[in-house]
Amino acid sequence: ERLKALLAEGPVMVRLDTEVWTGWATAHMVEGRLDGVEEPDKFVLFSGHLDSWEYGAMDNGTANATMLEVMRVLAQRLGELRRGVRVLFWSGHSHGRYAGSTWYVDHHWQELHDNCVAHVNIDSTGARGATAYDVIHAMSDVGGLAANVVTEITGQPPTIERMGRNSDQSFWGLGIPAMYGMLSRVPPEMTTPDQGALAALGIGGMPWWWHTVDDTVDKIDPAVLTLDTQVFLDTVYRLCTTPVLPFDYAAMAREM
User: Fold this and answer.
1) What secondary structure does DSSP assign to 200-237, as a single string?
2) pLDDT in tens, 130-142
3) Beta bridge pairs of residue 88
4) Which residues 6+ apart lie within 8 Å of 116 measured at CB?
5) According to the 3-state scheme, what is the secondary structure of 32-87?
6) CB count, 10 Å around CB of 45?
7) What gap in Å lies between CA 98 and CA 80, rounded to an integer?
8) Cβ 238 vs Cβ 145: under 8 Å
9) 3-class secondary-structure state, position 143
10) Which tens digits make up the pLDDT trace of 50-98?
11) How far lies 66's CA from each of 37, 101, 189, 227, 246, in Å?
C-alpha cells in the first residue's frame, strides 16, 4: 500500500535486498501401492508432484486429486489387475529440481529396473479453457498407446513429441518408458507471457495463471478435469491389465 501511494505521485525507484537459504533438508513423500494378481512383482509407476507454487489449484492440486481418483477406481477392480500400480506424490519437484523422484531412483534402482513396466506422470490438469489435446509427450515405444487412448477419450488425434527434461523424468537411466506429464492445453491467447521459453523446454499451452498466486480453484473446469482423469485412468488401467504390454519397439528403433 505504501508503494501504491508513492506511485500515485509519480515514478518510484525500489531497491530490494534478499537473503537466500540453501542447504539440505528432509522432505516427505506419500506412496500407495496396489498389487497385481498374475504378475505381482511388476508394476506401473503413476506419479505427480505434491509441492506447489502459491496456492497451486491446477499445479498440482487437480493432478493430485486425479491420482487419488484413479487409485480409488483401480482399488475396486483389484481382481482385474494383472500388474500392480504404485502412486507416488513427489516432493522436491520445483524447489528441489526433482529431488524426490531422484531419491526414489537411488533407493529403488534394482526393483525399478527389474519390475517397473512404465512411468505415467501427471501435472497441471483440469485448467479452464484447456480443450486442446493435439500434442502429447511420450517416448516412442509408448507413443502409440498414448495416441490411442487420447483419441478414444477426447476425439482428438494427437501428435506425439519426445519427453522433455521436466515432469520428474528421473527414470531414463533405467530404460523405463514414460508418457504424459502435462496433458490438456489452452489456446495461445490464454498462455503465459514466457510461452516461448516454455516451448523450448517442451512445455506449451500453459495458462497465464500457471506458477502465480492466481492459480486458484476458480480456474478449474470440472468437465476438463473429468476428461483428463479419464485419459489417465484408461492409460494406467491398460498398462495394468493388457496381457501383452502395448509397446512399439520398432518405433523406438526407427527414432534411434
Assistant:
1) HTT----BTTTTSTT--GGGB-HHHHHHHHHHHHHHHH
2) 999 999 999 999 9
3) 31, 47
4) 42, 43, 44, 45, 171, 174, 176
5) EEECCCCEEEEEEEEEEECCCCCCCHHHHHHHHHHHHHHHHHHHCCHHHCCEEEEE
6) 25
7) 33
8) yes
9) helix
10) 999 889 999 999 999 999 999 999 999 999 999 999 999 999 998 888 9
11) 24, 19, 27, 10, 23
The pLDDT of residue 26 is above 70: yes
The answer to whether the pTM exceeds 0.85 is yes
The owner of cell 512404465 is 118
Is 107's pLDDT higher than 90?
A: yes
Q: Which amino acid, one-letter code, is at 32?
A: G
Strand 30-34 with 135-137, pairing? unpaired
CB atoms within 10 A of CB 202: 17
Question: In whole angstroms, what is the distance from residue 189 CA to residue 210 CA?
Answer: 14
Question: Residues 204-217: what's their mean pLDDT?
Answer: 89
Residue 114 backbone dihedrals phi, psi, to 5 degrees = -85, -30
Instruction: Supply the pLDDT for residue 36.
Output: 96
Point out which residues pair with 122 in neighbouring strands: 181
Going by C-beta distance under 8 Å and a sequence separation of 6 or more, which residues neighbour residue 170? 98, 101, 102, 104, 105
- The answer to whether the beta carbons of residues 111 and 189 sit under 8 Å apart is no
94 three-state secondary structure: coil
- Kindly calculate the radius of gyration of the chain based on its CA atoms and give it in whole angstroms: 20
